[in-house]
Design goal:
Chains: A alpha+beta (about 220), B mainly alpha (about 270), C mainly alpha (about 240)
Helix content of chain B: 55-70%
Radius of gyration of chain B: 27 Å
CATH topology of the largest domain in chain B: Cytochrome Bc1 Complex, Chain C
Number of helices of chain A: 4
Strand content of chain B: under 5%
Helix content of chain A: 10-25%
Number of strands of chain B: 1
Shape of chain B: extended
Structural class of chain A: alpha+beta
CATH architecture of the largest domain in chain B: Up-down Bundle
Shape of chain A: elongated
Radius of gyration of chain A: 30 Å
CATH topology of the largest domain in chain A: Rieske Iron-sulfur Protein
Number of strands of chain A: 11
Oligomer: heterotrimer
Structural class of chain B: mainly alpha
Chain lengths: ~220, ~270, ~240
């Protein structure tokens, strides 16, 4: 049992606190330790938070929806795809572009037209396994990925390999007699629309909650 | 004042030659004076630094510690990895003098380095193949540590530091090969970024963070460049320091098949 | 390791250390020789192999076949061999994270005092299996071709005209996407379709042509190809019937 008188002593020396010196009181020590923590934390936060916010900013920045003109509606047919290059990211030059495969809505394979964005089907060329560039092969009516063996059928649903969901699509609309391609969206295996997800993120069942909507998702205008 | 200790006994080569009878007649030749004052100047510079830093103790502690009996060529793999890292650092600094990390200029500047800059392809080749060599060496070094059981007590912490260094090195090679900005670079980056995105809950935001946006954009390359040449090399250098301190502190292991012959004194004590 | 074993190790180690030589210059000499060899290797590789620069990054491509650097081949191949979509997350982050945790925690679960590799059979076997598995995955990753490349050699008993037709049919088959679902030789995906490397021995010409026109789902029909470009269709059938 420790000495009670020593426990109560106001001097750090009597309490065997490391680094004690003569005349130092416990409260004084506490004040100094407290300032170390408080000002240290404030200084760290003063450097860290702005720097972190600076680096993290783009994660929270909502993108603007872009609509890219790809020609007249008559340029496209409903039994095969035409590749079109559109810009999805401004300010990055050639790197901001991507290829989309475009065709008319075909009621035999796509079912009835859902809304005004559904008159044309624009399919992304990013494989939904990990983002490699898929190619449409007309002879077999398949989209084939060169990386890890993903295969998609005519409407973009997975017909083999590791991809977790059908190929992403783009909103389409006809304005003043021109076909325009809008923002990308993702679909689950029943082709229900979701906000654009990255490749490798499933959307069936629990997937849509494991991989939530991102802050950068643009709003349709 | 601490002084550098001269080895004792002083080797014959360093001992001043005794004067022959009649030589110099008590005066030294100019050549001897120059050599002697040069030697003195060297010693006094070292003394001056040591007086202010007391580094000689640390230097002696690291350099003249003993390595155990049986140490063989396998034990050079770690320092060879570090040497490969230093070589990467040097060539990297020079490559940075010509490289431009903007998506519109990156490929052109790499092509310029490769085709037009004097020794450009050679230095870029050294950086590229240096990465391969470092990767091979780090795996060999880890294999040696594993099979010799060198990660066991008391060196557990050094193993952990080593694995972190391995991961950082892999991050270096991944962020590094985006920079030339050819097709392979670009698609490898897309795939790597999407792999990060497959982590549940945080993955999508992490992928956005690495890309600086929802798509590969204007500042993605600069982000990878900053990670590749500032963030990760700094961390690697710091951790190499920790790794080496622990090696010096705990000593390198002996090969596991080398058995200690107990000295006479201990053996008799046991009996 | 318990306290007694730890103390024994430290005692034995201090004896070995006392019998050793100083780090400088004895170990440093070896290190510097090695450093020199490392630099010679880097310079030699740089001079001989050069610094290749591929075509410029192009996100609009649909014909490029991306491949990583060789030291990521094992991860790349891991992503290829794990085919079911339900396991994709396991392949991308699950297995690598698990391996990394196992690696980093190694000294905390392997605590035995024994250090000789031949007396640690579990650790040594696990280590060798890991190395062999990584080497094998690296080899597979390195030899993975593009989905539009078939590397089959024409049978040696064909004359020149037949070889030309074989090669044309091979090209048609490659560009028709067969490899997406079938394995032909070393190329293509093993499934969902059956391997076609020896299909000519299993099926006669006519049966192959019939299957291409009226396949069972999910295989697509090549009837359109026969209608529009009969020559190409015939070349593909001829090529497939030569595979045996």
């Amino acid at each position: 049992m420790a000495d009670r008188r020593k426990e109560k002593s106001p001097y750090t020396e009597d309490r065997n606190i490391p680094g004690a010196f003569e005349g130092e009181t416990v409260t004084r020590r506490r004040l100094m330790v407290g300032s170390v923590h408080a000002f240290g934390a404030m200084a760290t936060a003063a450097i860290g938070l702005p720097a972190l916010g600076f680096a993290l900013g783009p994660v929270f920045e909502r993108q603007r929806a872009r609509w890219e003109d790809v020609g007249t509606p008559e340029d496209f047919v409903d039994f095969t795809y035409r590749p079109k290059v559109i810009t999805v990211e401004s300010g990055a030059g050639e790197v901001g572009k991507t290829t989309v495969y475009v065709r008319k809505h075909n009621e035999e394979v796509d079912g009835p037209v859902k809304d005004s964005y559904d008159d044309f089907v624009a399919i992304s060329t990013r494989c939904m396994h990990l983002g490699c560039p898929v190619r449409y092969i007309d002879a077999s009516q398949r989209f084939v990925c060169p990386c890890h063996g993903g295969v998609y059928d005519f409407v973009g649903k997975v017909s083999g390999g590791p991809p977790v969901r059908p190929l992403d699509r783009f909103y389409t609309r006809v304005r003043r007699g021109r076909l325009e391609i809008g923002p990308r969206y993702s679909v689950n295996s029943e082709l229900r629309r979701f906000s654009p997800r990255d490749a490798g993120q499933p959307l069936d069942g629990i997937g849509q909650y494991l991989y939530p909507r991102r802050f950068t998702t643009p709003e349709l205008d | 004042m601490p002084k550098l200790k001269l080895p004792n006994p002083i080797p014959d080569q360093l001992r001043p030659r005794p004067q022959r009878p009649g030589e110099g007649n008590g005066r030294k030749s100019t050549k001897d004076v120059v050599i002697e004052s040069g030697r003195d100047a060297g010693i006094s510079v070292v003394d001056w630094v040591d007086e202010r830093t007391s580094l000689s103790g640390a230097a002696r502690w690291t350099m003249f510690r003993k390595v155990p009996k049986g140490t063989n060529w396998f034990y050079t793999l770690g320092s060879a990895t570090m040497f490969a890292f230093l070589s990467q650092a040097v060539t990297g600094v020079f490559l940075a003098m010509y490289y431009d990390p903007s998506p519109t200029r990156a490929y052109e500047s790499t092509r310029h380095i490769t085709n037009e800059v004097f020794l450009g392809e050679f230095v870029r080749g050294m950086h590229k193949w240096g990465a391969t060599v470092m990767m091979v060496l780090i795996f060999l070094h880890m294999g040696r540590t594993f099979f010799f059981g060198a990660y066991k007590y008391p060196r557990e912490l050094n193993w952990v530091v080593g694995v972190v260094l391995l991961v950082l090195t892999m991050i270096m090679s991944l962020t590094g090969y985006l920079l030339p900005f050819d097709q392979r670079s670009f698609w490898a980056t897309i795939v790597a970024d999407n792999i990060n995105g497959t982590g549940p809950f945080l993955g999508p935001y992490l992928a956005d963070f690495l890309r600086a946006g929802p798509e590969f954009g204007a500042t993605t390359l600069a982000r990878f460049y900053s990670i590749h040449m500032l963030l990760v090399p700094g961390a690697i250098a710091a951790l190499i320091g920790v790794h080496l301190y622990l090696v010096a502190k705990l000593g390198t292991t002996a090969p596991p098949w080398v058995k200690a012959e107990e000295p006479e004194q201990l053996r008799t004590e046991k009996v | 390791m318990n306290q007694r074993e730890k103390e024994q190790y430290l005692r034995e180690y201090s004896v070995l250390k006392a019998q050793g030589k100083p780090f400088f210059p004895y170990a440093v000499a070896k290190d510097s020789v090695m450093a020199f060899l490392v630099l010679v290797a880097i310079i030699a590789m740089s001079l001989v192999l050069g610094a290749e620069l591929g075509p410029k990054a192009d996100p609009t491509t649909t014909t490029y076949t991306p491949r990583p650097e060789w030291y990521f081949f094992f991860l790349f191949e891991l992503l290829r061999v794990i085919k079911p979509a339900e396991l994709t997350q396991a392949a991308t982050i699950g297995i690598p994270t698990l391996c990394l945790i196992l690696l980093i925690m190694l000294p905390f679960y392997d605590r035995g005092p024994e250090r000789r590799p031949e007396r640690r059979p579990i650790a040594t076997t696990a280590g060798i299996i890991t190395i062999v598995a990584m080497a094998y995955l690296t080899y597979l990753g390195a030899s993975a071709g593009s989905p539009t490349d078939i590397e089959m050699k024409a049978p040696s008993d064909l004359d020149r005209q037949a070889v030309a037709q074989f090669d044309q049919g091979k090209l048609v088959a490659a560009q028709s996407g067969c490899l997406a679902c079938h394995k032909i030789g070393h190329n293509g995906n093993d499934g969902p379709g059956p391997e076609l490397s020896e299909v000519g021995a299993r099926l006669p010409r006519e049966a192959i042509a019939r299957t291409l026109e009226n396949p069972t789902a999910p295989m697509p029909s090549y009837a359109a190809l026969r209608r529009d470009e009969p020559e190409q269709f015939d070349a593909m059938v001829e090529f497939l019937s030569q595979l045996r």
